[in-house]
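For reproducibility, we list the full input for the 2-keto-D-gluconic acid complex.
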Amino acid sequence: MNKKPVIVVGRKLPESIEARLTRDYEPRFNADDKLYSTDELLALCEGADAVLPCHSEHFTADVIAKLPDSIKAIANFSVGVDHVDLEAAKARGIIVTNTPNVLNDATAEIAMLLMLGAARRAHEGEQIMRQGTWTSWSPAFMVGTQVTGKRFGVIGMGRVGQVAADRARGFGMEIHYYNRNRLTPDLEKSAIYHKTVEDLLPHCDVLSLHCPATPETVKLLNAKRIQLLPDGAIVVNTARGAIIDEDALASALKTGKVAAAGLDVYAEEPTAQSIFKDIPNTFLMPHIGSATHDTRDAMGFRALDNLDAVFAGKEPRDRVA
Ligand code: 8YV
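The corresponding predicted structure, in tokenized form, follows.
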């Protein structure tokens, strides 16, 4: 009998995924779900055939250079691949895959939660209720922004952006978007296309970010561009923290230029959301965009389908390098 491929599993995965890994592979599980140091990760990779990491395991060029020759694939449990140096992987002939499509709904749901939470000051309301400091009511109490009928601007009209736009349509919002390529009419669904980010921003009562973090999109939303938003706009980010110049956003939140921000992702995770934690007009979540049972299962199965293809000598469906 052929020896089963040895797979280093970056984090604790759902039961159903670990069961399939045990059935088909020789997994090196992370039972305690600890965040491995680079050295620990590299040590675990010795003699292994592939890695199944999350975005929390960083495969920089340096780490990839140190991987043993036995590693054939990095099959990510994520759609984002900014934690992997794709060029370095390609240069070493290591196949890299991701898990597209299966997180669209869960992430779009969180975008709506963030939009509404930010617009209606959910964090302040929660705090008042949980601290027992609700002592009075008046028509001026906790007045927020209504999103119904307003403009919902999307940067990155890919799979998640399109679903988020559909959900925003449910609030009667008019959809505007910037994308590298204009969508075909069936996907555009009458959304208004803007050729540049600068053209889009003045039309965003709510701006929702859905583009990947790449060298081109790092700090895409900077101080200069924030000024192009309508006064009192709401910023939502479920993509990657690196896309926002966080200091610039924090300043704009303090002046009220940006009325509120709903954020699920941060430039440095899991620590750097601290720059927003004392700013009351924010609604903050700890990178839970895809954190539903359905989606986490689907991500795991998709990652395993990719691994299965690699070890069957076939082209994996979601190859990104
Ligand atoms: C995941 C994500 O939770 O898939 C992604 O790119 O950002 C998240 O929703 C995470 O990456 C899992 O590794």
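The chain has 13 helices and twelve strands. Residues 54-55, 77-80, 103, 289-290 surround 2-keto-D-gluconic acid (CB under 6 Å). Both points were considered when choosing residues for closer inspection.
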